[in-house]
Specification:
single chain; alpha/beta; L-fuculose-1-phosphate Aldolase
């Protein structure tokens, strides 16, 4: 997969096309770049910005578009009207791919990234190109121009932006008390609020990384709400400990793995999970969770999961909650039961039970185990230990780790399938195999 970043160059590598390349790499995607302007800035101050000529910009675009298949495009800093005209003209040559527009107007360290004289051209020629536009609240208000935040709710602001041409809108960084939330309005004009704790950290490049991560998710098939959630998780994990490379503000972490790497890996897997065709049909009535544990987990507090659930919304799915250790109880408990017997197993997801699917997976070389909830001792039913009892019993006397554990339900209990793997992406491969059988 190839993603193209069109934007400004930042010599500190905190923002601009350098931040985009790092984000694409963290998502294991190849990044291409077209430079619209060269900035002189560092972690302390912004010195200068010089646009490239229209001829050079067009030549770069020609070079990339003639040699690479482009799967998605991000437009960041454009700076001047001449760049706007070239970009809007050249992108008419690109097929139907997601385009994320990040309307950067000022750098974190100060400095103008979009000339005032270019704003009308930006609204007219760039915004309508967008599959999604990702302004922060201040940028959103500047684009609209005739409204104050106090005069309108975030939803109204997002809808006003959508009326200017983009398919969907994600307004980021709206703070309310101890929570910071993003307002998403999708292509159906349906609002969604994505919230989490406020991170008290100023860093260079957070907005660039968010919009680039959003593009990664859209290019892999996520809807805009799922993509925004994935991007939010990606940036949140890196904002907590920005890299102190210069004398000024920290740069958003460039670590591909970011500490233990669990959060980024699980968020990426959930993003890919959401993009699997037909996956909504596999979400059970009790909804889904997807988990990933630290090595040798002792309790569910060693298991990373969605604090809410992965829920079905029509023909798509939505991740309702953030990634937290201890965020899952039931799927995390099932994973603990397996990992105590087979420590290499560290990830799991629960899905809807289907008899024909289980039968076909059993003949596909997967290790499929079953337990019978009708045989469950009364004490475990009342003590809330049903999953621990069932899964532990399944794996107690088997020689190899299970790929699938299922039960067919009991009175008032929904049948359930749980897929296990060494990593979230290992689990994903089994989900895809299950889907192939599900539709046959």
């Amino acid at each position: 997969m190839n993603l193209l970043s069109i934007g400004g160059s930042d010599p500190s590598s905190g923002a601009g096309i350098q931040a985009d390349i790092k984000t694409f790499s963290a998502h294991h995607i190849y990044g291409l770049t077209v430079v619209t302007a060269v900035t002189s800035q560092n972690t302390s101050r912004f010195l200068d910005a010089s646009p490239v000529s229209a001829k050079t910009l067009r030549s770069q675009m020609n070079a990339v578009l003639s040699d690479f298949e482009i799967d998605g495009i991000k437009i960041g800093m454009v700076y001047a009207s001449q760049a706007i005209y070239v970009i809007s003209d050249m992108l008419s040559l690109v097929g139907d791919v997601p385009v994320v527009v990040d309307p950067v107007m000022r750098a974190t360290t100060g400095g103008i990234l979009l000339q005032d004289s270019a704003l009308d051209d930006y609204k007219r020629h760039i915004l309508p190109l967008a599959t999604a536009i990702t302004p922060n609240l201040q940028e959103a208000l500047a684009i609209i121009g005739d409204i104050r935040y106090e005069d309108a709710a975030a939803e109204e602001i997002a809808l006003k932006l959508q009326s200017m041409g983009p398919d969907s809108v994600v307004v980021t960084g709206i703070t309310s008390g101890t929570k910071t939330y993003d307002m998403v309005v999708d292509q159906n004009r349906t609002p969604h609020t994505l919230s989490g704790p406020t991170i008290h950290s100023t860093s260079h490049g957070g907005g660039c990384a968010f919009s680039a991560a959003l593009l990664c998710a859209l290019a892999r098939g996520s809807d805009v709400t799922g993509a925004a959630w994935s991007a939010r998780e990606f940036v949140a994990s890196r904002l907590k400990e920005p890299t102190a490379t210069g004398f000024g503000i920290g740069i958003i972490s460039a670590d591909v793995t970011d500490g233990d790497g669990l959060r980024a890996d699980l968020a990426d897997a959930i993003d890919r999970f959401a993009g699997i065709h037909g996956i909504a049909e596999c979400i059970p009535e009790c909804q889904t969770n997807f988990v990933y544990s630290r090595p040798s987990p002792k309790t569910i507090n060693d298991v990373l999961g969605v604090s809410g659930r992965i829920v079905r919304v029509g023909s798509s799915i939505l991740t309702a909650g953030s990634l937290e250790y201890g965020g899952s109880k039931h799927v995390a408990t099932a994973l603990l039961a397996v990992s105590r017997r087979f420590p290499q197993v560290r990830s799991a997801v629960n899905l809807r039970y289907a008899h024909t699917t289980i039968s076909k997976m059993s003949t596909s070389g997967l290790n499929v185990l079953k337990y019978d909830r009708s045989l469950e001792p009364e004490g475990t039913k009342t003590g809330g230990s049903s999953i621990l009892w069932g899964v532990s019993g399944c794996v107690q006397n088997v020689a190899s780790a299970p790929d699938v554990v299922f039960h067919t339900g009991d009175h008032g209990k929904e049948p359930m399938t749980i897929l296990f793997g060494e990593t979230p992406h290992d689990v994903l491969s089994k989900v895809r195999l299950m889907l192939r059988h599900y539709y046959r």
